[in-house]
């Protein structure tokens, strides 16, 4: 038994295509309109400033969107992109355009952990608002009550750096943490921070055939 289970989403709880195809395709045409329609939103203003700083682009919305689309095409985990995507997805879930689909083994495992007293948290490159919206609108209903914390690259840091996992451990107030992910590099970073790790090698996913050693590996939760 472990005190905390921290979970990745993409490729671990939900198919990668759910993010890279369904969610990306939903966000892509809405980025420009969202920027233009929310000029007074502090999160949007900050994201726009970060895009300009990171890209050096000083033009209007069309130029900013071109940068964002380039990051999406390269699957870059860039904070302002994740912020804007998260806001768009949040609205999409709220209005019923989007419904999150999880692997069949996920919800039973989450409920079993929760019922056994294991505390659950999420660490994903997707923004915290996007995570909350995702788990609040799944094919299995609202799962947000199962989770006690959400972490992203803003409040924790990059997923492949050990210091990010140390920051999370400090927030959780525990060194008894097990991390589940489909990405070996993330598991290496978590292990360096002193966490227990479990590789999730799902058939058909991008890392399904990866080398997960020395981490314990499962094909389902």
UniProtKB/TrEMBL annotation:
It comes from Saccharothrix coeruleofusca. Transmembrane segments: none annotated. Binds 1 Mg(2+) ion per subunit. InterPro entries: Enolase-ppase_E1 (IPR023943), HAD-like_sf (IPR036412), HAD_sf (IPR023214). It comes from the Bacteria. Pathway: Amino-acid biosynthesis; L-methionine biosynthesis via salvage pathway; L-methionine from S-methyl-5-thio-alpha-D-ribose 1-phosphate: step 3/6; Amino-acid biosynthesis; L-methionine biosynthesis via salvage pathway; L-methionine from S-methyl-5-thio-alpha-D-ribose 1-phosphate: step 4/6. This is Enolase-phosphatase E1. Its cofactor is Mg(2+). Its EC number is 3.1.3.77. HAMAP family: Salvage_MtnC. NCBIfam families: enolase-ppase. Gene3D superfamilies: 1.10.720.60, HAD superfamily/HAD-like. Belongs to the HAD-like hydrolase superfamily. MasA/MtnC family. GO terms for molecular function: 2,3-diketo-5-methylthiopentyl-1-phosphate enolase activity; 2-hydroxy-3-keto-5-methylthiopentenyl-1-phosphate phosphatase activity; acireductone synthase activity; magnesium ion binding. GO terms for biological process: L-methionine salvage from methylthioadenosine. It catalyses: 5-methylsulfanyl-2,3-dioxopentyl phosphate + H2O = 1,2-dihydroxy-5-(methylsulfanyl)pent-1-en-3-one + phosphate. Bifunctional enzyme that catalyzes the enolization of 2,3-diketo-5-methylthiopentyl-1-phosphate (DK-MTP-1-P) into the intermediate 2-hydroxy-3-keto-5-methylthiopentenyl-1-phosphate (HK-MTPenyl-1-P), which is then dephosphorylated to form the acireductone 1,2-dihydroxy-3-keto-5-methylthiopentene (DHK-MTPene). Keywords: Amino-acid biosynthesis, Hydrolase, Magnesium, Metal-binding, Methionine biosynthesis.
């Amino acid at each position: 038994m472990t005190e905390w289970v921290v979970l990745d989403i993409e490729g671990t709880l939900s198919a990668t295509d759910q993010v890279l195809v369904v969610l990306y395709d939903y966000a892509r045409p809405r980025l420009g309109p969202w920027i233009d329609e929310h000029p007074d939103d502090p999160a949007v203003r900050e994201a726009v400033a970060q895009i300009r700083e990171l890209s050096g682009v000083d033009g209007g919305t069309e130029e900013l969107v071109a940068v964002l689309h380039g990051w999406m095409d390269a699957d870059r985990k860039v904070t302002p992109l994740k912020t804007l995507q998260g806001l768009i997805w949040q609205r999409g879930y709220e209005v019923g355009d989007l419904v999150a689909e999880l692997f069949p083994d996920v919800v039973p495992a989450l409920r079993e952990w929760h019922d056994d007293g294991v505390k659950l948290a999420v660490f994903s490159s997707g923004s915290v608002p996007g995570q909350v919206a995702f788990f609040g609108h799944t094919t299995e209903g609202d799962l947000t009550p199962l989770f006690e914390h959400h972490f992203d690259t803003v409040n924790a840091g990059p997923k492949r750096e050990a210091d990010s996992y140390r920051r999370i451990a400090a927030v959780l107030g525990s060194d008894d943490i097990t991390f589940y992910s489909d990405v070996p590099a993330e598991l290496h970073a978590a292990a360096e921070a002193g966490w227990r790790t479990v590789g999730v090698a799902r058939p058909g996913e991008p890392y399904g055939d990866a080398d997960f050693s020395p981490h314990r590996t499962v094909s389902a939760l």
